[in-house]
Amino acid sequence: MPARRSIPIQPVASDDEWHIAGIMVYAHPAALERVRIAIAAMTGTEIHAATETGKLVVTVEAPTSQAIVAQLTCLHQLEGVISATLVYQHNEDAAAMYEEIGDVSHAS
Hints:
Number of domains: 1
Protein name: Chaperone NapD
Distance between the termini: 56 Å
Oligomer: single chain
CATH superfamily: Lrp/AsnC effector binding domain/regulation of amino acid metabolism (RAM) domain
Largest sheet: 4 strands, antiparallel
CATH architecture: 2-Layer Sandwich
Order of helices and strands: EHEEHE
Subcellular location: Cytoplasm
Low-confidence stretches: none
GO molecular function: signal sequence binding
Strand content: 35-45%
Family: Belongs to the NapD family.
Function: Chaperone for NapA, the catalytic subunit of the periplasmic nitrate reductase. It binds directly and specifically to the twin-arginine signal peptide of NapA, preventing premature interaction with the Tat translocase and premature export.
């Protein structure tokens, strides 16, 4: 399998946006391990769940929507991938990604 180039994601200034996307990838079951390895090697991607039948739940984080689209295109083009579908995309100011979230317990 030829090496795939990752899309470099550079740190962003605190006034820029940060994008997070949820993508459903469906791969040929026989190619599942090869697809998992390729996705894991891509910058900004993470596999959260996978089935033996070839379905993978992947998130992508990137500084721009164009980078999300580029990563989605790369996922589509991986050998063994049948489809890669954008399920969800969200963006926030990059500064918000560094805000500490307190542990709020509703237990009495």
